[in-house]
Amino acid sequence: YVTTILEDAKIYSSHAKKSSVDADDVRLAIQCRTDQSFTSPPPRDFLLDIARQKNQTPLPLIKPYSGPRLPPDRYCLTAPNYRLKSMQKKVSSSAGRITVPRLSVGAVSSRPSTPTLGTPSAQTVSVSTKVGTPVSLAGQRFTVQIPSSQAAVKSATPTTPTVQNVLINPSLIGPKNILITTNMVSSQNTSNESNPLKRKHDDDDDYDNL
Amino acid sequence: DRQTLMAVLQFLRRSNLRESEEILRREARLLGDDLSAAALSPAGAALLGGPGGDADSGGEALLSRVTAAAAIAIGSSVATVASSSPGVAAVAAVPPGKGGARAGAAGSLPGAGGRLLPAGPRGLEGLCASRSLGGIVVEDQPDVSAVLSAYNQQGDPTLYEEYYSGLKHFIECSLDCHRAELSQLFYPLFVHMYLELVYNQHESEAKSFFERFHGDQECYYQDDLRVLSSLTKKEHMKGNETMLDFRTSKFVLRISRDSYQLLKRHLQEKQNNQIWNIVQEHLYIDIFDGMPRSKQQIDAMVGSLAGEAKREANKAKVFFGLLKEPEFDVPLDDEDEEGENEEGKPKKKKPKKDSVGSKSKKQDPNAPPQNRIPLPELKDSDKLDKVMNMKEAARRVRLGPECLPSICFYTFLNAYQGLTAVDITDDSSMIVGGFADSTVRVWSVTPKKLRSVKTAADLSLIDKESDDVLERIMDEKTASELKILYGHSGPVYGTSFSPDRNYLLSCSEDGTVRLWSLQTFTCLVGYKGHNYPVWDTQFSPYGYYFVSGGHDRVARLWATDHYQPLRIFAGHLADVTCTRFHPNSNYIATGSADRTVRLWDVLNGNCVRIFTGHKGPIHSLAFSPNGRFLATGATDGRVLLWDIGHGLMVGELKGHTDTIYALRFSRDGEILASGSMDNTVRLWDAVKAFEDLETDDFTTATGHINLPENSQDLLLGTYMTKSTPVVHLHFTRRNLLLAAGAYSSQ
Predict the structure, then answer these.
(1) CATH 1.10.20 assigned to A1-55
(2) What is the pTM of this model?
(3) Rounded alpha-carbon distances, angstroms, from residue A81 to A84, A106, A134
(4) Which UniProt keywords apply (chain A) (predicted)?
């Protein structure tokens, strides 16, 4: 800690064209570091302000007969975040058939955070067999993160069916930097129900180029 | 100018400062009374503030201009302060000590104002004094930097100890009846003076000031003083949000008029009015007419970080009644007929109506209108649930002092101090535990195991028309007693089942609230809004809405289908540690680390009640089933009972020796159960605690109730566990008490 602060202070003093590091530089260095590492909750007047704004809008009416009331799909964690691609380069449209031994590009759901970059806890991986990604992938960059996925798949709990042979084609890695975060994905029925609502896009062609 | 003159004259007249008034009028050369009277009446009407401490904003604005004009004319350096909180700061800028400036400015004021000073320095003081009789109130939050800079103007730091000990001497020599009330001043004055010294970087004086006087403070402020002792430099103050809030909000004191007169007279006599300045700037003195309070009464109500609650904070109307249950037909089963006795038989043909709904056709005046807030409609499954509920209710045991509930304790073994949250469904079929290793575990309490629904592939194969379709959709291969849900990245501090048992909420230190499906046992949504640990969450009794409260000092109301909160309840000075819905879902109670409990209106986000009295952070809240009362438990080991309608404390239950983490009323509200870290569950007689409430005019006006020392009478039983702190309590539909906790070996 002390070394970091002193190095920062040296940088600041040289920026200010001073001959030596003095107390002000050190103070500035400490302040910048604490602003980065420790944030405190917003001040009260700010909170009162946003509360006033938020509380002015009336409560929204509730639509009847709307099934499970969840936010729009992009804000949910119900989307499958990878897609299984058929070997024959044909989209298998029948649900329930596991056609693919090869794992292709994973779609990273756009909005919600993909929580588990690093927590070692095993995820229950429920593999979606339906082909269809929720987000258009054109032009996006992804990175592959492999280690946990295979272990997780192998140790998937008996509650969810595992996919045999989930191979990740090493040719996908490399120049394109593809990321697959193998978070848990909700079970098939929700993804199946939600897929018809998702945008249709021609996804195969994009991935063939990889 | 003329208007302000009228305003000043009117005020002087009201305060019986005839001499000053005459002088002023003479100097201003006003013609006779008729002119002044005519002009004064509209101004006067504006000035007539409410009695006993309410500030009228119109009058205040006028006066503030007067005093601001005076302050500027005096040439004091506090023009910046005058611009921020006008009435307060400007008055503070006119201590009689500034004699030198006064002489110089005598000629510079326009018209009568200039003569006002030399002719009536007492008059202006009287003005300030009479103005402050009303208790100077600035409702808006003053600009923080301006308030902080107000610390700049103070007197000699070395004399602070003398001022404080002078005040201490005065209060200790005052009459007994006044001493208790005036002693309330010690703590806020001590803190503010200390913070001033620190802010102005007089470290050694601050330290010696602290050393000398911190032992005199009340015992229940010791935690705050410990925090304060670590704030020794100006830089320390900037990062501490709670201390900043403490300084920018006014500490509220309730003092009787007599005691207040005494204090004011004493402080004004002295030449060094440092303490008077602080009183005016940082304290809000809520004056009431009547007998001064005894030490015992005061001790019951004080303790929060911002003093007590102002009386008008608790005056808004609260709809504490319950919503009408919908009436619907209940098919009578054969097995139920025996339990129905004579009533059931003649009504065989008639469908049985819900007993609650059919009681009266008229609207309960204390209940909110049905559509005050939008609530989800009842689905068929909900109606079936209600039918089950009623059937169970018919078999419910009536509890009372002679008939105590049996207690069934669920102990979490091998949790290694990791159990941080527990919840049980309303029908007592599932129990969930949130753990410090960021997992959420769901167990089935009944012999029926937990199953998830089948995959889509299999679902398409089942016969949808069969009667037991709800059984067929479940996948037998997934049956297990325990389900573990992974997803959070921090300890899980709060869990809540939805009333229809389809969803589970969990909130965690990672700042998110997660919605889990109990049909697939996967996570559906992560609600991000708090960027700081979320300490508690709860579903609304009707589902769809939920509330969460966290370290960022706000509570948020969410709906499951909105990714952003619908309401933000901001106002607490420290973390929100506990959030509960009222049974009618229109109000939310939040308990906080600033030792207050606030009741918020869901419709518009306003704070409708502030309850002070706890001496430690509040960790448990429970509404009575009839919606009228609230029970709160905190780290001080006391359970306080509050009447929501009147906004008063109605009971205090002493007995626990450690933090109370669980409070629950029995199904019909006869018994209150409390569970605590001291490894006990205590049962209290709620019926007796809430009867005989005196609500005469005086108590409603002042909020003072003489609490009877009847904790021992109300205690019905104490049940010890084997070194297992009680974390959760739940009354089943038949009034069996379930309790949960994790065994801790030390």
Answers:
(1) yes
(2) 0.69
(3) 10, 6, 8
(4) Nucleus, Transcription, Transcription regulation
